[in-house]
Amino acid sequence: MSRYLEWRDRIPNSSWQWIYGMLATVGLRPHEAFNCTFLDALTLQVHQQTKTGSRITRAIQPEWVELWNLTQIDRPEITKVS
Question: Which domain of life is it from (predicted)?
């Protein structure tokens, strides 16, 4: 698991570090990181507007939630292309 820790720190932008952390820690699909809310520190609700629908998921690596401060949501500002 240490390779995941190492690669995250190579990402220069903190918002994209947050996205990486969410994908690695909770097992989100990339688009889901923009459409989720925390129910508690280890549980997320992925909202229906995603292409795969609504679901609840829990941290696969719970210690990374605190290590990377993932409950402080820091999504990158992006422009959606339609």
Answer: Bacteria
